[in-house]
Amino acid sequence: MALAAYRGLLRAARTAFQGDNYVLNAALTEARRGFEVNRDLDIAGQETQVLIKNAQEVAKMLRTNVVQGKLNDSGRYKLRIHDGIERGDNESTKIPKSTFGGGTGTDGCCSP
Questions:
Q1: What is the pTM of this model?
Q2: Distance between CA atoms of 90 and 59, rounded to whole angstroms?
Q3: Which portions of the sequence form the region Disordered (predicted)?
């Protein structure tokens, strides 16, 4: 179970940080360090299960929520969005200020 979590974390880091060797190497080194520090824990222990679950959650976060941006010549960022990235529907942007923030819509910075 721990080995599968470790491999999943490495794969997720490679996907999330593809093309950025500095950050990729730092992520891989940190993943290895985290697993090496806890190498001697009992595999059936509660602490080990919590650490494995944490590694799986970090891998999921890397796969679904980390997007790379690269500054191009025109001063804009080009995002590398791969298939695993979670996309929202922006429904909260359609809610009027009076119901979203709990205010009346007449207070705040934009009131006349």
A1: 0.70
A2: 25
A3: 83-112
Question: What's the CA gap between 49 and 47, in Å, rounded?
Answer: 5
Across the strands, what pairs with 41?
Answer: none
pLDDT tens digits, 8-66: 999 999 999 998 999 999 999 999 999 999 888 888 889 999 999 999 999 999 999 88
CB atoms within 10 A of CB 28: 15
Cβ proximity of 101 and 54 under 8 Å? no
Where are any strands of DSSP class E within the chain?
68-71, 77-80
Q: 64: buried, middle or exposed (CB in 10 Å: 19+, 13-18, 0-12)? A: middle
Tokens 């494995």 found at: 52
12 exposure class (CB count in 10 Å sphere: 0-12, 13-18, 19+): buried
CB 16 within 8 A of CB 30: no
CA distance 17 to 25: 9
